[in-house]
Amino acid sequence: VLKAFSYYHPDNGYLQGMNYLCENILKLTDDTYTCYSIFENLMNNQYYHLYTGNFDGLKIKIYQFMRILQR
Predict the structure, then answer these.
(1) pTM (2 d.p.)
(2) Is the dihedral of CA 63, 24, 20, 48 positive or negative?
(3) 13/2 Cα distance (integer angstroms)
(4) pLDDT in tens, 7-23
(5) pLDDT tens sequence across 37-57
(6) Cα gap 38→68, rounded to integer Å
(7) Mean pLDDT, rounded, for 49-68
(8) Residue 51 in contact with residue 39, Cβ under 8 Å?
(9) Which of 30, 29, 9, 32 has its CA nearest to residue 47?
(10) Staple partner for 6: which of 13, 16, 38, 61, CB 3.0–4.6 Å?
């Protein structure tokens, strides 16, 4: 699943942390095609910005989370 995603998305390829998300989807679906579809959908619509470039999206989310915890 991750190898296929990396092939079809060469701008990002595989990045650390994708395996955790994919593993849990695969446990729920037990089908690689369904797992890939869900994983790609999540990455394209929800999580893609977290894994781009130098992880600026992820850094922003961590900062926001830390600010919430400080309240």
Answers:
(1) 0.70
(2) negative
(3) 9
(4) 998 877 887 778 888 99
(5) 999 998 888 777 777 767 787
(6) 29
(7) 80
(8) no
(9) 9
(10) 13
Tokens of 36: 């890939």
In this prediction, residue 3 carries a pLDDT of 94
Residues 6+ apart with CB under 8 A from 68: none
SS (H, E, C) the chain: CHHHHHHHCCCCCCCCCHHHHHHHHHHHHCCHHHHHHHHHHHHHHHHHHHHCCCCHHHHHHHHHHHHHHHC
Residue 42's alpha-carbon distances to 48, 52, 66, 69, in angstroms, are 8, 14, 24, 26
The answer, yes or no, to whether residue 71 has pLDDT greater than 80, is: no
